[in-house]
Amino acid sequence: MSAKRPAARRPTMKDIARRAGVSESAVSFALNDRPGVSEVTRDRVRRVAEQLGWRPSTAARALSGEGAATVGFVLARPAHTLGVDSFFLQLVSGIQEVLARRHLGLLFQVAEDVEEECGVYRRWWAEHRVDGVLVVDPRTDDPRPDLLDGLGLPAVVIGGAPDERHPGLSTVWADDAGAMTALVDGLFARGHRRIAHIAGLPGLAHTERRIRALRAEAERRGLTEVQSVTTDYSDAEGAAVTRRVLEAPAPPTALVYDNDVMAVAGVAAAAGLGFSVPSDVSVVAWEDSALCRMVKPWLSALSRDSVEFGRTAATELTALLDGGPARTVRVPVPRLIERDSTGPARRA
Amino acid sequence: MSAKRPAARRPTMKDIARRAGVSESAVSFALNDRPGVSEVTRDRVRRVAEQLGWRPSTAARALSGEGAATVGFVLARPAHTLGVDSFFLQLVSGIQEVLARRHLGLLFQVAEDVEEECGVYRRWWAEHRVDGVLVVDPRTDDPRPDLLDGLGLPAVVIGGAPDERHPGLSTVWADDAGAMTALVDGLFARGHRRIAHIAGLPGLAHTERRIRALRAEAERRGLTEVQSVTTDYSDAEGAAVTRRVLEAPAPPTALVYDNDVMAVAGVAAAAGLGFSVPSDVSVVAWEDSALCRMVKPWLSALSRDSVEFGRTAATELTALLDGGPARTVRVPVPRLIERDSTGPARRA
DNA sequence: TGCGTGAGCTAAAGCGCTTGAGTGAAAAGA
DNA sequence: TCTTTTCACTCAAGCGCTTTAGCTCACGCA
After folding, report:
1. pTM value?
2. Closest by Cα among A121, A346, A174 to A252
3. Closest residue by Cα to the C1' atom of nucleotide D12?
4. Domain pair A70-174+306-331 / A176-303, same fold
5. Which residues lie across from B282 on neighbouring strands?
6. 20 to 30 A Cα–Cα from B281, which one of B43, B190, B201, B248?
7. In b/e form, how buried is each residue of B7-45, taking b as 16+ CB within 10 angstroms?
8. CA-to-C1' distance for A36 and D7, Å?
9. d(Cα A343, Cα A25) in Å, to the nearest integer?
């Protein structure tokens, strides 16, 4: 309890070796389940290690070629954009669950943009800091896969589309296109013909996928009054765009929002214009969270298990670190949770 | 772009030494701004290093006693509790800003509870993984300061009260008591006599501080119908507690919520019971976010700059790592942003 | 001329761990 | 009985960096 560090010395393998009366190498063999020591010795060494509270120094491990036992995660969003968001904490929490079990650390960094993010990867690689990384928010024209491939840094892209151009990277993705198609299908069945999609950031892979899927579905059904508008995911833009589309001569009867925050803001904006939900206009949020049950009416939402998404991604990365092949795995299509914000289209 | 890692070799000091025609030690001196080399050589070495894209291996650095260049951050909350939350991402984002500038990494982990969190600290210490940690959610009876003090791990406690018992730890705190006093002051002035405080998790230091401050202020003014009820911060409990207190024979005329999520849920719950805000009951959220402007009426809220809070904490930690003394710094008292959810008390 | 001095550099050890190349003794085979 | 194999273990090098001690040479000074 002194002001200056008492700094208890960490036990090293040398300490164990001395106490167990064997050489350091024997200790290494014993502790790493490698052949070369008898079961008796192995047990003794293990006991001594336990007793001393020994843990391998990651630094030393890393230096002797074992990797840093750490995984990197960069969030490239300007600080002020990180508003109310449940997705990332949940995702990270799922990632953790898997990593912690293997005593892998998670190095976390927020960056301003993708360019800075690339710099972080380079630095991490050069500093020998991470064994692999998890990449989020993939873009349609994304420099990161090329970079990571070039550095030979194992990586899992979260939320990207299958990418044949980078066979070294794993991908974990949700079928946004399928979800969008099913969603439009449902809306169509209930009479909706004019649909507005308040999308997220342009350039994000999943934003583009949803937009394309919506357009394709509209064409297939011959719907002409279907549109997508991109935003920055903020409540402000969500509200603004909502007002804009609803003030048109023939306003949409259904609004699909790319996140919960905009959906909530949109409902308020609609109410402000005298539209009531769902009788005048139906609302669906892409992303379910407590938010959706905090407003009246409760919002119908596409729900996915973000924690599980994180677990899956982390599992793929560990597989990659173990020398496994890169894979592309699809997580379940988000399910539509019907609450009170969706109903039949109002008769024209 | 091959399937198996091309694994470009990282340049080491040896490479630089060879290219610059000097010894490794000279390179070390040159690159660390230590005396022992001429300016000419220093420049040459620097140029070669730059050209090779060299970065020191953190592993090697750590091993030769320089520390891991990494800071730890544990969030001890069960995964499902990590709902809609703006505070932590903002906090972390502020922390990052300061750390990144010094090329310090942030090792992030979520744990189930404080006990597991202590285990993480022990492991990090033994594995030589971090040079210091940031501790959040301090409790009234907290084992962490003792542990960290014992390990000699530099630490900054975020949101704790000044702690004379652990002179080795820095503390960054907000004056919750002062804020609460001012808040009650304002409510009192507008005629509120019956106040309910829907608090956060019991046992958290700031929860207790707020509760105590409220009680003290109530006693000072002779208010008898003032109460605090603890919750788990969730919208569900926020709503439930709101219903309970409003159904009392003499319901409160003002509700103070310890976070924005509960406040929003509380407004909805109040509406469900026929109470309108603010004419029947005033509502204040402790923590401002986009959420507060997503509901009608817009919520009055105590606002603080969480990003700046993070910056301050990280700055204190780096000071500690540089060998500076432990300090206790207070961040500005949260400001009340008056919106539409507060008004004069209804006449009895 | 000799000697101390300091600037500029090199050699080498050490941090904690892994690992391939030994070593010595017991067990197995001829 | 002697060789070969196997087993259990030790030695020593090496990972990339820091750091201490030491070495060399030019310079200043008596």
Report:
1. 0.92
2. A346
3. A25
4. yes
5. B254
6. B201
7. eeebbbbebbbebbebeeebbbbbbeeeeebeeebbebb
8. 8
9. 71
- Sole residue written with tokens 């003032």: B226
The neighbouring-strand residues paired with A331 are A174
From chain B, the residues in CB contact with A13 under 8 A are none
Token digits for B16?
């630089």
**Alpha helices (H) along B252-305:** 260-272
B204, two tokens: 């958290």
pLDDT digits (tens, 9 = 90+) for A143-174: 999 999 999 999 999 998 888 889 889 999 99
Question: Which residues in B lie closer than 8 A to residue A8 (C-beta atoms)?
Answer: 150-152
The one-letter amino acid at A264: V
* Rounded (10°) CA dihedral B211, B214, B219, B225: -90
AA letter at A305:
D
CATH superfamily of B176-303: Response regulator (3.40.50.2300)
Rounded, the Å distance between the CA of A57 and C1' of C18 is 12
Considering only CB atoms, A290 lies closest to which of B58, B84, B296, namely B84
CA–C1' distance B171–D19 (Å)?
A: 35
Per the prediction, chain B carries an average pLDDT of 92
Rounded CA separation A145/A52 (Å): 44
User: Tokens 């597989």 appear where?
Assistant: A319
